[in-house]
Amino acid sequence: MFAFPLDQMVGGIFYEHLHRMIASTVGFLTIIVAIWLWKREDRKWVRILGLVALGTVVAQGLLGGLTVLFLLPTAISVSHATLAQTFFSIMVTLAIVTSSLWRDDKPTIEDHSEGIPIVSLSMMMTGAIFIQLILGALMRHTNSGLAVPDFPLAYGQWFPSLSPDAIDRYNTQLLRSDIRIAADEAVTASQILIHMIHRMWALVVAGMVTWTSIRLFKLSSLNKRIPRFAFGLLILLAIQLTLGALTVLSLKAVDITTAHVATGALLLATSLALSLRLLKVFGFPKRQSNVSLSVKEVTA
Prior knowledge:
Helix content: 55-70%
Shape: flat
Distance between the termini: 77 Å
Number of domains: 2
Structural class: mainly alpha
Largest sheet: none
Order of helices and strands: HHHHHHHHHH
């Protein structure tokens, strides 16, 4: 991998092979982490998680190879992108649970707030962000990123028509606007649908982040560090939504699109870190018991 001549790394080859070399480095470092954890870590579940990370990065390398050999098939490419986020989440978890802060933190306290437990809410938010990243990968690898070229509307509507006549009009519009050329394949209804689902799920993520952040601000009396996550989440959300809009309006400019993907991963990592932090402070949510005593049992 590292014997490839540097003078041949030009154009797209530079980015492709640099990606491979970074992936090889990450794989090598993951081997070191897994061995180190197995020899020095006293918690069995952390040692196992290190092995899971190693297995994940190996599988990621295999998927990367298959992506190239089979010329970027959608299923494999999306799986490759999804597994990358999974591996990233595992490494974030390992970094947190092996930190001195995790080991030295105070014992768990009870969450007496009303409604959904904050730990559950944070986990739901993390899951929603992860789903959004999968939808983003699906949109990229099905060439659906510019299936809808305007924002915030979609072909002048809140949700575009998917009728055959409408699809023909959209393709004519894309050709006249020089967004696509005659040699490109026509935009399909499924591409437009994938694009719109990604947009709509962004609203779900925004709602989850906002809801969770409001709940976090109310926990300042219990823990001073937790509300800080709310500021980070809201700032990242604002940046991510802005980058998402600019990705469309700039016709997928490389720097903006890359920043959009990277910020999405950072938002996922922050949400996951929050969930782990809340688990450490509050523990797993306890189910409410509905068992009631009868009058005879009380008097007895």
